[in-house]
UniProtKB/TrEMBL annotation, chains A, B:
Listed EC numbers: 2.3.1.274
UniProt name for this protein: Phosphate acyltransferase
GO MF term list: phosphate:acyl-[acyl carrier protein] acyltransferase activity
Cell location: Cytoplasm
Pfam families reported for this sequence: FA_synthesis (PF02504)
Keyword Lipid metabolism: yes
Alphabetized UniProt keyword annotations: Acyltransferase, Cytoplasm, Lipid biosynthesis, Lipid metabolism, Phospholipid biosynthesis, Phospholipid metabolism, Transferase
Pathway(s) served: Lipid metabolism; phospholipid metabolism
Gene Ontology annotations of biological process type: fatty acid biosynthetic process; phospholipid biosynthetic process
Length: 313, 313
């Protein structure tokens, strides 16, 4: 099994990327190989610094880098030898089992749609993010930014995609799906949430528990929390800022420490024909390591095949 | 000056309401009179318990109560002698300077629209909520639930309403207005936020600083944060739950203590012809007291006249 990392992605790349990749290789201890994709002159010396610890890592050269400020679609198409384009090409060719990057979110989404593509039947893939639960473990929230604007049928599918992920990757037996809303009662909310409610209510593939509210993110009501990408993004960034504030104030707590993006390392793109994970721009080696371990977990679980077979029927 | 309270509103009414009203009367120390509206047999005995401390409170009987579960519009129209309907009638007649209730949010909104009504020119009044700032002081977030679905022109007006409130009530010289979005760049977001951005950019009445993100709620980028009522409600309830979790974990901090709804007591309805504030259902006496003090501050500032004269032109 091969789990790949864009060695050029993230504010602290390639140093943090290489360090995190070496860390992940040690933890995987041979269960999977780590593949590093990036500019040879930048990555090789860093690998050499790690000596024997980096011996099992595979290096794949890519001469170009997509920078954070570039137009995602344009950059992806023009820079066919960028680390992100090379990664997706290898993923699509079956040479990789998962591809992770802390680089441009936009380019990672564009690459997913252009190369491995959405699973037939999936209207729009979504980015999922982990939500720590007070009772322990985690739930997932989706979409957190791939689709600012959503249709009811997309929210319904997010419920299905999230349920599959929660079941096969997080190991939650029968994941409870909650629709983020501004009130619990059926009929509350926007035209979008009202219509999505009706679809989810009769969908046999999800265990829909109805509307949940902003206060229910961290409790045990729902394992899978669905919303449009605009709302999910606001929620995610607000949670991150809460963690940062607590951290600055040196208020530490095991629950709130899970708000740290490093704890999970990255956000999977769900609904594409393969395993891709997007990391935070400021990813540290620990975050990179956890993103790669998550990629391994996704690949091992066979989640993308589960999604394909569910949406085929 | 007369600041009125629905003595029957809130989960712990009338006890918490009466206790909070007495507390507010003591703090106002004659600057304004507190008017309690409610069922005589329930409220009078509680007032008597307070003895001399309650001597300056004015009691106005209302025989009916609108319960939390009732249909707001139906209940408001059918229960014309409810504490909320009586309060709004008196407010509209100029017998009160502000009306506060921790009762049904829906009935408070319906009452506002039916009695004192929206300011001519205001498309839809909004509910504003306070946001504590890391640098001290507070900003406001609107809408937090009056309008789940918004048009760009509504968001633009929320910017104007919020700016007036921040200036005249919070004393912020030139309030900075930020549009909640999933990215900072112009052009990001939904059709709604994209269109609202263009309106705000050229609006001479607001100091628009552009898009802000979920991570900017508590920093100093914006004093007035604009979003649709669905998103604002999710954000507000998430913030409340963070406070509750910190509180349960006994993690106390002056900044996070301001997440406590009790600190501000209630959310003003902005864009109506008078001063009305909606309190949290679980309002304690302290929350009730702070809601009344906020009502006094609003009345004293002349905010509703400022809004009227701004939207007339």
């Amino acid at each position: 099994m091969k789990i790949a990392l864009d060695a050029m992605g993230g504010d602290f790349a390639p140093q943090a990327a290489v360090d995190g990749a070496v860390m992940a290789a040690q933890q995987l201890n041979g269960a999977a190989q780590i593949v590093l994709i990036g500019q040879e002159e930048a990555v090789r010396p860093l690998l050499q610094q790690h000596g024997a610890a980096a011996a099992d890592l595979i290096f794949i050269p890519a001469t170009q880098v997509i920078a954070m400020g570039e137009h995602p679609a344009k950059a992806y198409q023009q820079k066919q030898d960028s680390s992100i384009a090379v990664g997706y090409r290898m993923l699509h060719a079956g040479e990789l089992d998962a591809f992770c990057s802390a680089g441009s979110t936009g380019a990672m989404l564009v690459g997913a749609m252009f190369s491995v593509k959405a699973v037939p039947g999936v209207l729009r893939p979504a980015i999922a993010n982990f939500v720590p639960k007070l009772a322990g473990g985690q739930g997932i929230l989706l979409d957190v930014g791939a689709n600012a604007e959503c249709k009811p049928e997309m929210l319904e599918q997010f419920g299905e995609l999230g349920s599959l992920y929660a079941h096969y990757v997080l190991g939650i037996e029968a994941p409870k799906v909650g629709l983020m809303n501004l009130g619990e009662e059926e009929g509350k909310g926007t035209a979008l949430t009202q219509a999505a409610y009706q679809l989810l209510k009769v969908n046999p593939h999800v265990q829909f528990i109805g509307n949940i509210e902003g206060r229910d993110l961290f409790n045990s009501k729902a394992d899978v929390i669905i919303c449009d990408g605009y709302t999910g993004n606001v929620v995610l960034k607000m949670a991150e800022s809460i963690y940062e504030i607590l951290n600055e104030k040196k208020m530490h707590d095991p629950f709130f420490d899970n708000f740290n993006y490093e704890a999970f390392g990255g956000s999977p793109i769900l609904g594409i024909n393969d395993n891709a994970i997007i990391g935070h721009g400021v990813s540290t080696p620990l975050a990179i390591c956890n993103m790669l371990l998550q990629g391994y977990k996704m690949a091992e679980s066979g989640i993308s095949d589960q999604i394909k077979s569910t949406f085929k029927s």
